[in-house]
């Protein structure tokens, strides 16, 4: 079960690194990777195609990460066998310590006149 969890964690890490790279390559003002390759004289067709690829890659990688996380929870969350439990010891009460009985007769003190 540990190898499945490790595999999912490695895939999640790889997808996360790729997602960071894709997001960092984008520019919020519309330049980004498309502005780098196309320059100022880029046609609208080339820029739009690059932006579409970046957006699809971002959503795909994000969805892949979510699916991998859910799969790792589902597959590794259920125990394959019931773990043995420690038996609880039988409850035994200790006997109460009683004072030893005084079997010697009490001595009488002579009365003074």
From TrEMBL:
Q: Where in the cell is it found?
A: Cell membrane
**Keyword entries, A-Z:** Cell membrane, Membrane, Protein transport, Translocation, Transmembrane, Transmembrane helix, Transport
One GO biological process term is:
protein transport by the Sec complex
Protein's UniProt name:
Protein-export membrane protein SecG
* Region spans: Disordered: 82-113
Transmembrane spans: 7-25, 57-76
UniProt keyword Transmembrane present: yes
Give the highest taxon in the source lineage: Bacteria
Where does this protein have compositionally biased stretches of type Polar residues?
A: 99-113
Molecular-function GO term, any one: protein-transporting ATPase activity
Kindly give the Pfam families that the UniProt entry links to this protein.
SecG (PF03840)
Which family is this protein grouped under?
Belongs to the SecG family.
Q: How does it sit in the membrane?
A: Multi-pass membrane protein
Q: Which GO terms describe its cellular component?
A: plasma membrane
Task: Tell me yes or no: is Transmembrane among this UniProt entry's keywords.
Answer: yes
The UniProt entry lists the main location of this chain as membrane
What does the UniProt record say this protein does? Involved in protein export. Participates in an early event of protein translocation.
